[in-house]
Amino acid sequence: MDKEFVPHIKFSSLSDIYPELSLPSQITRYKKLIDSFEKLYNRKPKFIARSPGRVNLIGEHIDYAGFGVLPMAISRDVLIAVDTIHEGEENDMKVRVANVLNENYPPRNWKYEGKEKIVEIEVKEGISEWGNYPKSGYKGIVQHSSLDKPKGMYLLVDGNVPPGAGLSSSAAFICSVCIATCSSNDVKLTKKEIVEIAIEAERSIGMNAGGMDQTASMFSLKDHVLYIQFLPSLCATPTKLPSTNPPIAFVIANSLITSDKIVTAPTNYNLRVVETKLAAHHLGQCLFNKPCENLKQVSDLYSNSIEVTIENLIKLLDYIEKVYENNHDGFTLDELSSLLNLNQDEIKDKFLSRFPVKAEKFQLYKRSKHVFEESSRVLKFYELCSKSEARGSIFEELGNLLNESHKSCKELFECSCDELDDLVKICLDGGAVGSRLTGAGWGGCTVSLIRENEIDKFINFVSEKYYNVRFSHLSHNDLENFIFATRPGGGAAIIENL
Ligand code: NG1
Ligand code: MG
Question: ipTM for the complex?
């Protein structure tokens, strides 16, 4: 996978990316985008950069702790129609970006400002500025490739990954900008290099991102889920779901509670990242007299191996029960200071300075327990997928893992919310064998495991019990955007010959 490049595919070969069901509507969408581009800029797009969102089947909030996760790309994606400005044309280093949803995302533009600055990005705490996403991706590529005359571009964005829904709209957007910038400038980077740049780009605008979303967006393969390991180095293994009769299906349902992670990061996402790092530091000190950087490193040192095994995770879980026997509800900064043998300034400097974080107490026990248990669930899920012969109980076995994952997100990682819990319960009542929040949480979507022949019945049930009760003003058309079955789609690509 180290030598894989972003595929360039013809418009007529879109079926390489989209599962059959969603193909006709996608073709119409592409044509509309090309049309709008011509109307807006009075020129034709040269190509379309396309990166998908993803649904994480299992392995929540463990990517940044270094443990493996199991997402798959969905058909929803961010398309960017692109034309490159040639040297000598007017404003040949200017980038213009507009969105088909003009009202929410008004046009932005910028000019290359030299090797040092490249482009000014203003990040205000608690404010999400949409123009920062394309700027950060552009900047990442220009910087990495040391371009001194990056080409100007006309960009028109059409994204249909719902934002703030845990389906990784942000990563899909940044990945699309990255591949658009590469293609415009004839820069040839591997998928892996682009993933690394896209992760850093998202960090530069305020999210202390893990690497799952960018990897899933770049590496996913149609009809496969992706087992992603991060350490010792990034490794993405596509694997098929067990073949069963009826087939396994996944339905995504949006709670319609939007969680803008950039806005809530200091008390939610970025705080969780810090808590897992504090736990790694502390457990490393207790076990080996040496602070660790992440919880995967704790597991490696504990087992003397870089391979993560269920047996070892169980031993670690026993261990943390003893270490945090007397503290299940968190440490104040003062208490942390004596626990870690660092003064408060050292803690602030090491853990709380790059990304602002606000907390009265830092939870080490609950967060590390979630991370180790969730990692073992990922291993079990992956093992069930890897077996060629599916057992009769496969639905229940997979479903239970999803249910346990949700419980842990709710109780230990505290990243659920009332609406998500309600929605999960309704999904289970409606016939799901397993259901859980997916993505960062605090709102956003659930993913449910369903027998394929029960999809319609399931969707009707959830629509009636959740959407009609809480959001009775929604039309039938809206509903199709909020609750839909999904199949594993392909990853990022440049679409040519429009
Ligand atoms: P979403 O909710 O899609 O933004 C975020 C992180 C992931 C991962 C999940 C939780 C970014 C870009 N994405 O996903 O890396 O940590 O939360 O499992 O930070
Ligand atoms: Mg995101």
Answer: 0.97
